[in-house]
Amino acid sequence: MKNLSFCCLLACVLLTILCGCANPRQVMVNPNTWQQTVCASSGWGWLGAPLAYKNYNNCVNNQKVLGLIPLEELEAKDTPRFDTLIDATDKKAARPEWQAGQFWEYSLSSGGTSRLTVQKIGSYNGTAGYNVFNANGRESFYDQSLGLMIVFGSGGVETEYDPALRPFDFPLFLSKSWNATGDMHRSGGHIDLSNHHEVKGYGRIKVPAGEFDAFYILNRSDYGARISELWYSPEVK
Question: Cα–Cα distance between 166 and 148 in angstroms, integer?
């Protein structure tokens, strides 16, 4: 019986060694420019798994030489970018109600400006919301919680999100976090999306349009830009 138990244990160990897998992954970020890259590798078995870790570690070390640091390290030491911090212990932001004709104009860090205009209050597939146009005349549809549902192209629906892409979860308040998952459907197929959002701070920011009190929201995503920042001002909506 002891020999049988030993043989079973040995078989399990050998199976683990031969069939082991490795799939390390690390988001690296430039703390000054927020340039992002992902170090990832995968391998199977007693040869593939160690090689995967070696390639992964080489990537991480190379990115550190270039000035990038792990995302978790950035989050631990990075503070929201406010001109003035404000106590937001009891501060909450309710869901806004947009009106036809409302618009917002932005100065882009890359230069120039962009503009969003609420063309009308409408519905899509039975969901109430807003038809919005950008500066280039491209139309999108947002639900009443400001979740992006549809982006229209010249031939009709170009991109559809199921459920709506949800960067906000009203009411907003300090330390609130939420996950937003779903599918992005395009003519060429679909992509699974997974995002994590957290309200990290509240304070006053200065922009060309003036000074505004705003919530600072940090987003971590499995697709596209791995991290992104949002400032939401209840005053501006």
Answer: 7
Looking at mean pLDDT, say which of 45-54, 105-114, 126-135, 204-213 comes out highest. 126-135
User: Is a pLDDT exceeding 80 seen at residue 149?
Assistant: yes
Amino acid at 205: I
Cβ neighbours of 141 (radius 10 Å) = 23
> What pTM value is reported for the model?
0.70
Across 213-232, average pLDDT: 82
